[in-house]
């Protein structure tokens, strides 16, 4: 049974992935800030799943949570990092606090979580999957989502850096187009606080620039992509996987 830690598992795509992996036979540790939600998600994931509180913007919290997850699972074979935030905002209006907040979750949190897990992943010749976005370098820049897009481009470079320093671990940058998400607690809240008027203004530009895939990816397909990546032989490198539309299996970029 694969021992997998999913970070950002209390809601949205992270919750869907954590529950889905647990139901596919992974022994899962589900990490997030909201204790009640992750406990509920862990119950859905199966009897082997555990819930651990974790704030990805707090290094001490991350390191403590990774340690607790490793103890609960008896090691870590895989790490899946899903947290991401971003607001629709004109670049000229994006202040330092916004840049800092976005990078703390989307990039720094991923770096710190990986660092905490590396000793366990090296011991197991494990894998790390980061949920990225085609708003990074995969598509033209999205007007109005500059901070988010730049952070995802930085995440791509971070994955490359980890791969260069730790060739014993398989790092995958999973570039996800628009995904349908789940229902209830599993529904994505990524755009819930967007300025709707501003998003409506930028939407025609996203379409004309070819930023949007035009078809939502079913969340079950995304779960299957992650499950497939984690199930590949450790010697098989999948540095970049692109999941757009509704693929049934990942296709290395």
Automatic annotation (TrEMBL):
InterPro entries referenced in this protein's UniProt entry, alphabetically: NAD(P)-bd_dom_sf, Sc_DH/Rdtase_CS, SDR_fam
GO MF annotation terms: oxidoreductase activity
Keywords: Oxidoreductase
Transmembrane segments: none
Lineage top rank: taxon: Bacteria
Pfam assignment, any one: adh_short
Entry similarity comment: Belongs to the short-chain dehydrogenases/reductases (SDR) family.
Name of the protein: Short-chain dehydrogenase
Organism: Mycolicibacterium agri
